[in-house]
Amino acid sequence: MKVVIMGCGRVGEQVSLLMANTGHDVSVIDYDAEALARLGPSFKGQRIRGIGFDRDVLIEAGIEHADAFAAASSSDTANIIAARIARNVFHVPRVVARLYDPHKAEIYRRLGLMTISSTTWGAERIRELLMHTDFDPIIAFGNGEVELLSLETPPHLVGRQVKNLTISGEIIVVAITRRDQAFIPLLGTELRSGDQIHLIVGSTSMKRLQDLLGLGEGG
Q1: What residues does 110 pair with on adjacent strands?
Q2: How many domains is the chain built from?
Q3: Fewer Cβ close by (within 10 Å): the C or N end of the chain?
Q4: Residues facing residue 190 across a β-bridge
């Protein structure tokens, strides 16, 4: 995959290294030579010094043949401009813009631009860690409306079935890891001691999940 990344700060640097280390053709754009140098001598991709939304710079980076583009600079405005150019002018199939302002991120997401708000994601992650101390949250989807959680079978659910931990449209057991082997369970699958249960849960259903697990007040 040909990937162009604008911005070589902490996020851009990590994404660039991850993509390059897994065999992708990566071009990184940044106006700061020192930022590009932080990629290190073993970086196999292309480093381009320049403004990330400049047409000539983007062409030099290979935007015309890119499969994906990530705007990860420290400027929301620059990221939006670059992402829109990549999508609307060069028709890159996959375009992602990292934005600090969650309101801008939501606005442009509704306009069809794939955005990630590090502010929103960070806030949601902190909330998960503060509020769901009995769970192991893995990832939040959207703006945290749906979450993937992992937990060990509580003692009172050992011997019960997956259907006893399922509420249609609210809580779904998507997988179980048992003795280091994962599988997709049926509603009639029996829960065993030591099982790691992986669930998709709506954020508004956390209280119901706590009650099912015996973690609610007085549980």
Answers
A1: none
A2: 2
A3: C
A4: 161
Q: Are 119 and 102 in contact (CB under 8 A)?
A: yes
Give me the residue label for tokens 């769970």: 135
Same domain, 26 and 65: yes
Helix axes 102-110, 76-84, angle to 10 degrees: 10
CATH number of the domain encompassing residue 188: 3.30.70.1450
Using a cut of 0.85, tell me whether the model's pTM lies above it. no
- State the CATH number of the domain containing residue 53: 3.40.50.720
Q: Give bridge partners of residue 25 from the DSSP assignment.
A: 2
Contact status, residue 72 vs residue 11, Cβ threshold 8 Å: yes
Q: Are 51 and 85 in contact (CB under 8 A)?
A: no
The whole-number average pLDDT for the span 167-175 is 94
Listed in sequence order, the residues at least 6 apart from 119 whose beta carbon sits closer than 8 Å to its beta carbon are 100, 101, 102
Examine the domain organization and report whether 142 and 86 are in the same domain.
no
Q: Sign of torsion, CA 17 46 29 111? A: negative
* pLDDT (tens digit per residue) in 72-103: 999 999 999 999 999 999 999 999 998 888 88
Range of the domain at 190: 132-212
Phi, psi of 22 (to 5 degrees): -100, 15
Tens digits of per-residue pLDDT, 92-137? 999 999 888 888 877 777 777 888 777 766 666 666 556 555 566 6
Helix (H) or strand (E) holding 102: helix 102-110
